[in-house]
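pinging the channel bc i need a second pair of eyes. not urgent but kinda urgent?? the chain im working w is below, pasted from the shared doc
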Amino acid sequence: MFCVRAMGTAPRNRDGCPMTNRTTHGSTTLGRVAAVVVAVAAASVIAIAPAAAKPVKDRSGKASSTVQDVSGLQVVRTWKVAADDPGTLVATIHVQNTNTAPVTTTILEPLPTDSLKKVKFTPKKVPVTQTPGLARVDVTIPSGGALDFGYTALLTKDRKANAQDRLATAQSEMEATLAAAQPGDPDRALAAIKDRYVGQVKVTEEAPDGVTLEAPALGNTFTISVRLTTTPFCRVVGRGCRFPATDSFNDEPKLANFDPSGNSLVADGSADLAESGMTCGGVDTPGLQVVHWTLEPTAWKLSWSGWEVTQAQYTIVGDLSSPATSRCVYGSVHTVLTGLMTG
């Protein structure tokens, strides 16, 4: 230990360093150290203590949807419930026609049900008819034109629910309306056809005339698919749309096109066959195959895009005939296949 001698009369130890009162100065030192430790600990507590939580404000509820309507119109919907007014739902609908021709149709608007007190549509020039949970808005929009309308819905009181809760409840009720909707005649006329239907057809009739059937097909079932070429602007049969179409049967004549007939689709075809499947004296004979197809809607579903045909009765009526010869009489077979197709 090294010590620098200082001037003064303070007592010194054997090393020549000034002596101190260990009791007095030691206690003072310990007290200072303890004070420092406490101060540091207090500072640490202040540093890690969380800030007082600020009250969270309710946020507004907002949702939107953009769809291609079955009539070919683009429909943009927006719903809002303000944070400071959770009892009011404001909906705006923007309809755009990008088709090359004007479109007259009905836009179907699902509405809140249990949570709805009253509703007001604007502007007044847009005609609206209502049924529980659903509004029908008749529109005519020129090519390249647009239309804006909407409604304000006053909701039933619910002091515990915020704006987002009210919007979620209203949307849930709208979805339930879509799922439960049942079509009337005007709705069936607005329904769009889908691109593909699949199902089973059964041979329900088989009537030979002048021939003997070696392998009768009555009662047999076949899985079959029907494909239609649709366009965004022509999917509604009631509007006179015509569809190129095929099914999975390979016999001639093959399905080529569906034409509208009311709300159903029909097609006709015929083919001269070098080999008809009939024989005369063990030799194949030529024949004529005539076929009539019908796709008749039997079930519909409402979506945000409008009504769609979800099920149809598919019927194929075929008549195969072979002319009389010097050895055999005229022969024919009448066959009907029918079944439900779902899309």
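so The chain has three domains: 10-48, 61-181, 196-342. and The CA atoms of residues 50 and 110 lie 47 Å apart. — does that match what u expected or am i reading it wrong
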